[in-house]
Amino acid sequence: MKKKSELPQLLSSVGSALRILKSFSTYEPVKKITELADELQLAKSTISRLVATLVSEGFLVKDEHSRGYRLGLSVLTLGGIVTNNLEIHKEAAPVLGKLVNKTGETAHLAILDGINTIYIHKEECHHPVRILTHIGRKNPSYCTSSGKILLAYNDESLIEQTIQNGLQPYTKYSITDPDQLKAELALVKRQQYAVSTEELTVGTKSLAAPIRDHTGQVVCAITIVGPIQRMNDYNLPEMAKRVIEAGKEASQRLGYDERYFRHFPKR
Question: Which of 90, 70, 150 is nearest to 118 (CA)?
Answer without folding.
Answer: 150
